[in-house]
């Protein structure tokens, strides 16, 4: 049931991402809300869950957008795994740590994304990819963490208490 | 008549005479700079000013408690009125901007009617990611849209249709790394291919420019039309800088697209091109590179 809710929430986020988020794009870069959700879920629930949720979230996004099924799934899976691994080793209830983990995991996910694009023969200049897409997008996504982390943490605490 | 009465009458007559003389002396058309009345007014003006101010302050102080009755309600009503008017103002501005945009599209459509059949479409979505640059339009094959049709704005080329459904179509922007547009530098007719860099980067690159070509920043790039899906002469972008390609055999140039791909709301789909379509002149004076930065997400 929770997984279905997760997928529904992902659907809503992806629709928001493809419509409303253009308004808040800075220099063409918009935050990756799906990545944010995957990374924070992984950070709070562990590497295994993070990997699974990353893959599921990425697949939904792939079905919705670019036509390359698996491109976002693999990239977000890597980010979810990394964030989950970090969450198992670091103090989870600190917004600053969550922000830094989000930045690093998102950047790593976007780098995986870039390498998969190369694999698909879609050539992007590495400097452009890093400086004009990956770093700004990771920074913008991480900047949202302080606004949402305490709410998400509370929800997860309530959920884990109920379980 | 007694002496006292006569004296009074005399003084009255003198007074009347002086007054009449004063009246004659002070008729408006004869008032000049030397007029005693005028000088008097000048002298007492600051006093009058001060007294008037004092009077107003006094009236304000006296009437303040009275005016405070119901002030909170009036203030609240006024605040609501201001909010309503501000909301209306924003709405009117939105109508104004939309009107200007649609007028520009209509004007362009009329000008280009002899060369192209154009279908106006609204942007309803974008690629959710940052790597690719695609947009979704509200026109599909039920309105005659087909794959590979060109998409324009009055400023320049936007991209081409890559997928069509009954009521929507997906457009690959020229800033998408999968996009390639056969182009040439307008001044020198130097050929090259304009390819996207990354959807979110909002810039494109013209590659395979011959090494000896005279290409420099500020030059306009238009579609070549040769062996291309795009009609000839559509403005693509302005060259920002030129550099050598790693192979050393060619040059490449960074382009700022003329169409503001970051803020697309309405576009035109070219549904038919007349065989002898004329060349379109890029509107270089109206396009600022700073405003044409980042393109679509992707």
Identify the CATH class of chain A: Mainly Alpha
At the fourth level of CATH, the homologous superfamily of the domain at 115-292 in chain B is: Rod shape-determining protein MreC, domain 1
Number of domains of chain A: 1
Counting DSSP E segments of at least 2 residues, the number of strands of chain B comes to 12
Contiguous low-pLDDT stretches of chain B (5 residues minimum) are: 30-34, 283-298
Structural class of chain A: mainly alpha
Roughly how much helix do the residues of chain B carry, as a percent range?
25-40%
Relative strand content of chain B: 25-35%
Strand order of the largest sheet of chain B: 1-2-5-4-3-12
What's the CATH first level of the domain at 115-292 in chain B? Answer: Mainly Beta
List strands and helices in order, with pairings:
The complex is a heterodimer of chains A (163) and B (298).
Chain A: H1 2-18, H2 33-45, H3 47-64, H4 71-89, H5 95-119, H6 126-143, H7 145-162
Helix pairs in contact in A: 1-3, 2-3, 2-4, 2-5, 3-4, 4-5, 5-6, 5-7
Chain B: H1 3-25, H2 36-68, H3 71-111, E1 116-126, E2 134-137, E3 150-152, E4 157-164, E5 169-173, E6 180-185, E7 191-196, E8 204-210, E9 220-223, E10 235-244, E11 250-257, E12 266-273
Antiparallel strand pairs in B: 1-2, 1-12, 2-5, 3-4, 3-12, 4-5, 6-7, 6-9, 7-8, 8-11, 9-10, 10-11
Describe the structure.
The complex is a heterodimer of chains A (163) and B (298). Chain A is mainly alpha-helical. Chain A has one domain: Arp2/3 complex 21 kDa subunit ARPC3 (Orthogonal Bundle), CATH 1.10.1760. Chain A contains seven helices and no strands. Chain A has helices at 2-18, 33-45, 47-64, 71-89, 95-119, 126-143, 145-162. In chain A, 47% of the residues are buried. The mean pLDDT of chain A is 86. By secondary structure, chain B is an alpha+beta fold. Chain B has a domain at 115-292: Rod shape-determining protein MreC, domain 1 (Thrombin, subunit H), CATH 2.40.10. Chain B has three helices and twelve strands. Chain B has helices spanning 3-25, 36-68, 71-111, and strands at residues 116-126, 134-137, 150-152, 157-164, 169-173, 180-185, 191-196, 204-210, 220-223, 235-244, 250-257, 266-273. A six-stranded antiparallel beta barrel of chain B has the order 1-2-5-4-3-12. Chain B has a six-stranded antiparallel β-barrel with strand order 6-7-8-11-10-9. In chain B, a hairpin with a 4-residue loop joins strand 4 (157-164) and strand 5. Chain B is elongated. Chain B starts with a helix and ends in a 25-residue tail after the last strand. The A-B interface holds A 14, 17-19, 21-22, 25, 27-30, 32, 34, 61, 64-67, 72, 110, 113-114, 117, 122-125, 128-129, 132-133, 136-137 and B 124-132, 134, 136, 163, 177-178, 197-202, 262, 293-298.
């Amino acid at each position: 049931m929770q997984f279905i809710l997760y997928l529904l929430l992902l659907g809503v986020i992806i629709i928001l991402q493809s419509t409303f988020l253009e308004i808040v794009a800075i220099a063409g870069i918009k935050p990756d809300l799906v990545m944010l959700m995957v990374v924070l879920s992984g950070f709070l629930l562990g590497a295994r869950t993070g990997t699974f949720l990353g893959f599921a979230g990425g697949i939904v996004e792939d079905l919705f957008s670019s036509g390359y099924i698996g491109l976002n799934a693999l990239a977000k899976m890597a980010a979810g795994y990394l964030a989950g691994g970090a969450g198992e080793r670091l103090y989870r209830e600190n917004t600053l740590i969550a922000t830094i983990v989000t930045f690093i995991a998102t950047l790593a996910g976007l780098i995986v994304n870039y390498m998969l694009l190369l694999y698909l023969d879609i050539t992007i200049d590495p400097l452009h990819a890093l400086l004009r897409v990956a770093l700004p997008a990771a920074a913008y996504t991480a900047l949202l963490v302080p606004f949402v982390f305490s709410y998400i943490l509370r929800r997860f605490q309530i959920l884990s208490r109920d379980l | 008549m007694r002496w006292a009465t006569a004296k009074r009458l005399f003084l009255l007559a003198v007074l009347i005479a002086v007054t009449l003389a004063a009246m004659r002396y002070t008729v408006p058309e004869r008032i000049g700079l030397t007029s005693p009345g005028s000088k008097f007014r000048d002298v007492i003006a600051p006093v009058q000013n001060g007294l008037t101010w004092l009077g107003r302050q006094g009236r304000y102080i006296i009437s303040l408690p009275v005016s405070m009755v119901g002030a909170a309600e009036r203030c609240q009503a006024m605040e609501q009125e201001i909010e309503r008017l501000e909301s209306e103002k924003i709405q009117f501005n939105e109508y104004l901007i939309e009107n200007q945009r649609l007028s520009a599209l209509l004007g362009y459509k009329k000008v280009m009617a002899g060369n192209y059949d154009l279908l106006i479409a609204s942007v309803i979505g974008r690629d959710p990611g940052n790597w690719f640059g695609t947009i979704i339009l509200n026109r599909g094959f039920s309105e005659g849209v087909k794959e590979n049709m060109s998409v324009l704005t009055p400023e320049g080329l936007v991209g081409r249709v890559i997928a069509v459904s009954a009521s929507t179509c997906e457009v690959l922007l020229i800033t998408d790394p999968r996009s390639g547009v056969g182009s040439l530098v307008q001044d020198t007719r130097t050929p090259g291919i304009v390819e996207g860099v990354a959807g979110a980067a909002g810039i494109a690159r013209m590659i395979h420019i011959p090494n000896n070509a005279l290409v420099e920043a500020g030059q306009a790039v238009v579609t070549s039309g040769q062996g291309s899906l795009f009609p000839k002469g559509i403005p693509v972008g302005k060259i920002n800088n030129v550099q050598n390609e790693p192979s050393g055999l060619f040059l490449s140039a960074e382009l700022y697209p003329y169409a503001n791909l970051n803020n697309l709301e309405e576009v035109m789909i070219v549904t038919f091109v007349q065989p002898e379509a004329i060349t379109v002149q890029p509107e270089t004076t109206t396009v600022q590179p700073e405003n044409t930065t980042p393109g679509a997400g992707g």
